Amino acid sequence: MKLTIIGPWGGYPKVNAASAGYLLEHEGFRLLIDCGSGVLAKLQNIVQPEQLDAVIISHYHPDHIADIGVLQHARLIQGYLGKDMDTLPVYGHQSDQQEFSKLSYKNIMKGIAYEPNQELRVGPFKVTFLKTDHPVPCYAMRFEAGGKAIVYTADSSFKEEFISFSQGAEVLVCECNFYANQNGKSAGHMNSTDAGRFAREADVKQLILTHLPHYGNLTELLDEASKEYTGIIKLAEEFQVITI
Ligand SMILES: [Zn+2]
Predict the structure, then answer these.
(1) Spacing, Cα 56 to ligand 1 middle (Å)
(2) How far is the CA of 134 from the centre of ligand 1 (A)?
(3) Residue 58 alpha carbon to ligand 1 centre in Å
(4) What is the pLDDT along the chain (244 residues), one digit of tens a residue?
(5) Largest CA distance in the chain
(6) What is the whole-number distance in angstroms between the Cα of residue 222 and the centre of ligand 1?
């Protein structure tokens, strides 16, 4: 599996950057995980909108879905220009019907509800879900292919169920919206200590901190998380590639 970070920022994109978006590839299949603000502009450095095979959405906060509408426009216009493409499946939960309905657009994109209690097959990926603790319904996802696993927490405060859900994953892409001296629980987010403890207890091989705050010295997040977890820790960066 090859994971490319498209947008590492929480809440909104930093100048000339993107909020949540991750491209996961395996055996030529291209899955976009979340499609936040700025993602479409950044994504085109790597893959064209008409080349995506599927999209999956963790929840319907703007920093995770803002660019769904423009992705629809891009595929519509590229279709007019003669690019041949199938309807793009966009997997999302159905707890919010109004938001779910916006995933579908003409015959360009089609919203498909995932059942959080069931395993989902998307191309070569087996996807399982865990409901997170966040102000709106949101799902963490575990992607498995080729005998390896990547876990993406999406947005959440820390919850014990994360540990078994993420056990032994090669990569944990963990939201880290707060510094150690801040408590993210009421906002539904984790801090660097939560992320480090999580990685240690789940025994993952690598920790990527993402959904980053817009203030402070981000390297402190690494220092703080490393007090809990002694494995490889990185800050998510635009176009960073993690291959496992
Ligand atoms: Zn959110």
Answers:
(1) 15
(2) 7
(3) 9
(4) 999 999 999 999 999 999 999 999 999 999 999 999 999 999 999 999 999 999 999 999 999 999 999 999 999 999 999 999 999 999 999 999 999 999 999 999 999 999 999 999 999 999 999 999 999 999 999 999 999 999 999 999 999 999 999 999 999 999 999 999 999 999 999 999 999 999 999 999 999 999 999 999 999 999 999 999 999 999 999 999 999 9
(5) 54
(6) 22
Looking up tokens 């919850």 gives 159
Q: Per-domain residue ranges for the chain?
A: 2-243
Residue with tokens 């509408």: 69
Of 18, 24, 27, the closest CA to residue 4 belongs to 24
Return the SS3 of 82.
Answer: coil
Distance CA 228, CA 212 (A): 19
CATH number of 2-243: 3.60.15.10
Going from the Cα of 189 to the center of ligand 1, the distance in angstroms, rounded, reads 8
Number of other residues whose CB lies within 10 A of the CB of residue 16: 9
In residues, how long is the chain?
244
Reported pTM: 0.98
